[in-house]
Amino acid sequence: MKLLANPAASQQVLSTNTTPSVQKGRGRLLVVVGTYSIGKERICLGIAHALNSKIYAPPNKMRIVAALEDPELNALMTPDPRAAQVHMTPLFEIRADTLDDYLKDYFPHFTRAVGFRPSGWNYRPPTSRFLESPSVATVLNGENWKSAYAMKDLVPQRGSTSRASCFGVPYSEHSSFRELTMFCCALRIERIIPTVNVGSAKGRERMKGWCERWAVERKKSGVWKLPEDGGW
């Protein structure tokens, strides 16, 4: 398996060079992904596409997915857990010590399981990143502000085994600070009204400062544009 870099590093997905359902001598792999009541569906969709698989979810989650009215996602959903190599489960329920028990319910149809706990809280910025009042240009273009993530960064959580391994992965469907900076510098925005980090006078002042710095950067350098290769 390998990771394919998506323009948004937080949305990297698994890909495989082998027949997805059976690898010789290793049995059939089940991928279990933790989700919110609403949220994290896109990572399930990416994995399902990479494995050419359907997606299973319990009945209450199936109803929520249907309400999202996403044709691409709906086309892959199935109520049969054995017909899908990708399973959705509540995020709080997926742990290394429970994954093996989950696998037992579907053994021997599936013989191995990999669990993912996708959360922005799993992200750790590189130690080389300068966080104290970086310039807008540094946030936009600095290599250590680009959130690269690869297979080597996947570390199994305590309690994982060769049969059932659980991984915490940095994934969020919210914008990162760099993505927010890119957005605000790529459009000619007249006014920005922050709705987060404004619970205190200090927080409001800090957000006001960043809005002003983005405006100065646009005026000085023009609107920001993606590199020609489309990479972030």
TrEMBL record:
Residues 1-21 are annotated as: Disordered. One of its GO terms (biological process) is double-strand break repair via nonhomologous end joining. Residues 71-199 form the DNA repair metallo-beta-lactamase domain. Transmembrane segments: none annotated. It comes from Friedmanniomyces simplex. GO terms for molecular function: 5'-3' DNA exonuclease activity; damaged DNA binding. It holds the Pfam family DRMBL. Residues 8-21 have a biased composition (Polar residues). It comes from the Eukaryota. This is DNA repair metallo-beta-lactamase domain-containing protein.
